[in-house]
Design goal:
The protein is mainly α. About 60% of the residues lie in helices and about 0% in strands.
């Protein structure tokens, strides 16, 4: 009597995970989250270290920027670790609110002696909108996420598969875009203004 020698691979056999458009969008959202967190922390340091009397409004703004930047950093790291950003409903409310606050800061700062931070706030607005657009797209594509579609019978997401090269290219493009937006925002902060240019680190002993 013959016995089965081997069991062929089935759908339940663990396989190499497929990379999809959602993975690329999630990376872009994470890059933007890290950039926005850095800009908000730079804004906080600029407000804390601003010259002049310690105004309550300025101190409150610095504390809010510090809290938001730290929270955004933790939220982004958690999203990278879990492959899904936590608190989707809360972030869908806080991200637009943060963008609106930055817009108000640009308007008020123009006449309040903090016009130099306008570029930092503008960078934060653009990065926040990038995060919001990416997470909204992920919510529509991911089953079980609030605002997303119901679980399909096949279990397949609507996003297409990407090769490793395509995912790398998308990640590089996203990182480059975030860097282009983040760099001026950091440079406009107090820390950026006092940073020594790379070409001058060893040039202090040279005659002009």
């Amino acid at each position: 009597m013959m016995t089965s020698q081997a069991i062929p691979a089935t759908a339940g056999t663990p396989a190499t995970p497929d990379m999809s458009c959602s993975d690329a969008v999630r990376l872009v959202a994470a890059f933007a989250g890290l950039g926005a967190a850095a800009v908000n922390l730079a804004v906080a340091s600029s407000l804390f270290g601003a010259a002049g009397p310690a105004l309550p409004v300025r101190a409150a703004g610095a504390a809010a920027a510090l809290l938001w930047g730290t929270s955004l950093l933790g939220w982004t790291v958690a999203g990278l670790r879990r492959s899904r950003f936590p608190l989707p409903r809360t972030s869908a409310i806080l991200l637009p609110a943060a963008a609106a606050v930055h817009v108000v800061a640009i308007i008020l700062g123009a006449g309040g002696g903090m016009a130099g931070l306008g570029i930092s706030h503008l960078a934060a607005v653009l990065l926040t909108l990038m995060i919001l657009a990416a997470t909204s797209w992920l919510g529509r594509r991911s089953p079980g996420v609030p605002g997303g579609p119901a679980q399909s019978t096949s279990g397949q997401g609507a996003s297409g598969r990407l090769g490793a090269g395509q995912l790398l290219a998308a990640a590089f493009a996203g990182a480059l875009l975030v860097a282009v937006i983040t760099t001026p925002g950091l440079a406009a902060s107090t820390a950026g203004q006092f940073a020594v240019p790379h070409g001058e680190h060893s040039g202090g002993h040279h005659s002009p």
